[in-house]
Amino acid sequence: MSISPLKEARRAPGSEWLKNHPRFLEQTYLISKRFIAKTYPWMQKLSPRIANKLMVRSEEVLKGWAFNCQMCGQCILHSTGMTCPMNCPKNLRNGPCGGVRHNGNCEVMPDMPCVWVQAWERSQHMTVYVNDIQTLQPPVNRSLQGTSSWANMLDGKDMQTPKGWG
Ligand code: SF4
Question: If we measure between CA atoms, which residue out of 162, 158, 7 comes closest to residue 78?
Answer without folding.
Answer: 158
